[in-house]
Batch of 4 targets.
Target 1
Amino acid sequence: MFSYRCEKGVMSLVNVRNCIRFYQTAEELNASTLMNYCAEIIASHWDDLRKEDFSSMGAQLLYKMIKSKTEYPLHKAIKVEREDVVFLYLIEMDSQLPGKLNEVDHNGDLALDLALSRRLESIATTLVSHKADVDMVDKNGWSLLHKGIQRGDLFASTFLIKNGALVNAATLGAQETPLHLVALYSSKKHSTDVMSEMAQIAEALLQAGANPNMQDSKGRTPLHLSITARNEYVFNQLLQCKQLDLELKDHEGSTALWLAVQYITVSSDASVNPFEDLPVVNGTSFDENSFAARLIQRGSNTDAPDTMTGTE
């Protein structure tokens, strides 16, 4: 048994980085004064403590500590990447599952999203197997899949798609589906690696049954958006989809081909430029690899009327 004097002496050595270790020792030795002192430091620096600080602590003691310090112990257990503590939570809360798994913490985060954003596949799989809702949405109608795509998270997006997330869910207001969000990525703003990953997500979405013809609040399909964003990666994935409707118009009356034409610089070689009298602005030259040429090769109607004049 530690004497009070010894405890007071040791207390002078305690700081933020070692308070967890001293708390463990005090708990083992039943040194209550030292344990309470360490607990105060832990409490005042709770959000500053890193996963490494908790690595040596046993699951039972850590779970007990987490429960005493936060209203959302599951979220904290995931943040410190302790699957053993997650299991203790699931055992204790068994009668309240799956409801407790779908609670948001003070930051508005879901436990499953915390696990996915940290690439903790085993914890994420455990949560889903205990019926965490892969389609939970926030007040703006953004699902975990929408959020994963928005942050450019290939791991989270593919995990959710594989686990049955709704691939055609639309956000409130803008009415954007996951395919719309991947199409919005621009090569001007993102690296080739990120663009390639968006194409992989697009492919996974389409294979899982995503509808490439859904229109957002402005009537734009993912194909429309891939053209205006100059997203050749997702554009290529969409063109391979048999169900793709090339003639859908947005609310301004523009087809995908009409939008693509706006980006063409007329070629001096008449043989490669089928658009004799269409007004064009500076963009990419018209060649067999341009968005417009690819659409025509895929079967776009070149006789679609001009949306402004109604002429063909």
Target 2
Amino acid sequence: MSSTELATSNTSLAPSFASVEGFELANRIGKAFAASTLVPQQYRDNVANCIVALEMANRMQASPLMVMQNLYIVHGNPGWSSKFLIACFNQSGRFSALRYEFDLDGSKVPYGCRAWAVEKATGERLVGSTVTLDMAKAEGWSTKSGSKWKTMPELMLQYRAAAFFVRVYAPEISMGLQTDDELRDTFDNETGALVEPAGKPDVAPVRRRAAPIPADVIDNESGEITPAADAGIPASDDAPLDADNPAAGADAQAAAAQQDKQAATATKKPQTLGNTILASAGEKKLLINRAKSNDLNMAELIEQAGVGPMDPTTLEGLTADGFVAIKDLLPKAA
């Protein structure tokens, strides 16, 4: 290969997953970012996260550092800052800058907002969905503890209206991610529990999560686990009714209920905080021991799982769902 061809090849090479050379370049750049103190905590000493941010920046034609500084992890879910999403939309070149229309009450106070812009190719005026304070209340955004809707409602109306507009008219800009404001409105700031919309029937939601570990299977002192089969605890699973054979479905459901009852007799009554189930002492000990044996920083695991803040040495206040979130980040036991 001539020197001219080599120079052309080098200048066209970009960090990517499409080629070995592109991935090696992304890995080298990722290591440089991971060693920097200017990047957010979730990227420091984490080359893998830096490579993902590089790939997203490459697709968006944006600065990798700008992407890192505006991509937040909220309870384990990534989300863009609202101002960054608006800036990307305004700089896309396909639309005019976002503008907002407010609905005012009798006292001239905004209670509703919608975003709009003009599509340059057609000249059409595009109008987004209207976001109102009544909607924020009904969805539980403004009623949860620490909600910004209580202190800066006008700004939150604009941010949410912009997010709705971009999701409908330019979803490729957000790359399928919500904004950090939307993610924070989904969880309670104090308990970390999901916020349920107001007016829903008083019926416990069905959630698929790891089954509680029986008390005689996990050692509350050491955190060691004995497989449920060795402890004589039968497995349990959902058994929906069979539409074609109701009798067989009912029998299967009854058998599953009996298994659940047997497992429950071997399980200590879980501790709760309000309606939130807390992790047991053995579960917390398990996480601490496994993180220590794998030389992992528990404080960083808490942040990645989005279950903090809490003391990484005791995990005091850790919920059962938080236990599952952190456990999923740990290497599987040999």
Target 3
Amino acid sequence: MTIADVAALAGVSVGTASKALNNRGKLRQETRARVADAARQLGFRPNEMARSLLSGRSFTVGLLTTDHVGRFSLPVLLGAEDALGAGEISVFLCDTRGDAIRERHHLSALASRRVDGIIVTGRRTDSRPPLRQFLDVPVVYAMAPSEDPRDVSVVPDEWQGAREGVRHLIAAGRTRIAHITGPARHHSAQVRAAAFRETLAEAGLRPAGGEVMFGEWNEPWGRQAVRHVLHAEPRCDALFCGSDQIARGAADGLREMGVDVPGDIALVGFDNWDVMSTACRPPLTTVDMELGELGRVAAMSLLEAIEGRARPGVRRLPCRLVIRDST
């Protein structure tokens, strides 16, 4: 099957068929559609090397991540692949493991493969140094924004997500709400804590126990922290946790203390990590950062940048509250 067969079925010249299949030239939309339909009927796929030479593109992009566990980068990758697959673009996944030397190595390898662009992601939302000085292709930063406002960054709106979680607890009649979260040095912990305080203040409430409890992003900290909270405020009736891991640890700790969830204390997490949120007892109400959508939007933003239509700045995507039995 050749492009001449496609041209004959579509009733156009070989040159017109080539322009339509490679998205070149000034053709009427009906002509492009007719050629595309003929190619589908015949099962024709253009030679990738010829396609690359004609367009000056490799139809590949790199996805660079610091998240070696894959908890955050894999959903982003899947969302990006869904968007890029429609344009028959392949994705190379490179894990830097947070190592600057490994990152340079992967950037060199991606450049040698002539990728059309790169999506950079990671496991945290702290801003990161830009890569512009190492690359001459478009870069989009997903999850962790670039420090340079001239770059294109797509991030979850953690402020909005935290407010949704706290408002849900207030709407359920909870008035003595505590917040247990991760390390104070992390951007996510600070943003979620600030949103927690502001949302309580708007309702005329103060944090139960007096202060936000910063610690670690893990279950042992959740189990330990609930004891501190109930010692400081025995009448606490709700916990907003900075992650699902913390929330699951808190749920275990409360159960060990004979405290009923949600009867005595309602519980909200953050991340909607299935391993934690659905295995929690009871299943956890939590905030979903919609990482698949984040990956899709990052991929579409990269395609725009590749086509010379980059939109610099930070774009924040809304989070979604997922209500389960813990509230």
Target 4
Amino acid sequence: MKVFLDGRIMDSQQAVISPFDHGFLYGLGLFETMRVYSGHIALLERHYNRLRQAAEELGIDVTMTREELRFAILETLSANQLHDAYVRVDLTAGDKGLGPYAGVYDEPSWLIFAKPVPEFPPALYETGKKLQVLKRPRNSPEGEWRFKSHHYMNNRFGKMEIGANPDVEGLFLTENGCLAEGIVSNLFFISEGVIYTPDIKTGILPGTRREFVMELAEAHGYTVREGWYYIERLMVADEVFITNAIQEIVPIHTVNEKRIGEGTIGTITRQLLELYRKHIV
């Protein structure tokens, strides 16, 4: 695999960062997971803006413009001969020696890698996944809102709890028992034609696909509501689905042991998936 590191394309085995990089020592790093369709980097502007806003709050200089980042991603794709890809962009704080640092991180590192998008079975979009409520609650966000950061321990605990089954997604609740989000996804449910999703203030990640699906649904006449909802609302929903950048929109057939609807993709979820694929590029 060829990767991009600080302006250069190189073999992944040659890519190194300083052992004193604060992204490694203290988790002061951010990342974005992107999907590329036939060379088009989907929702790049939204990814870049989220990364930039988080970096500004952490005092990390964003040393590439959006267009420079686009070019770096395209370079990485070309080096790996990829047109449809999973792309990850990491921005780490950089080397400021040992100990906490109060100043601006003005020499961060950029790491980009790309790999083929997995071949998802048709059943993923017809039947979907099981959603398992996790015992461990969602932790508090790093700042005023949750960053997509290297601080991933809460997600690690969630993944350990559900195991390696790719057909199961773990669902975090807040400390007071309200719906939050999946380990690697945002959550939606539908009742009587209205689409609901947990509020950002519950401490969830402001997902790029969450925002995109909300806008898409409203533009096509659906009512979308954000709020604080308990698990009981999910259990009686007509449809449930999750979103993320790589798998797009995935229906949920079961929550814990409770079947949702007919146990297959619902009418509105199917419409949203069709709209998503029509408009994402």
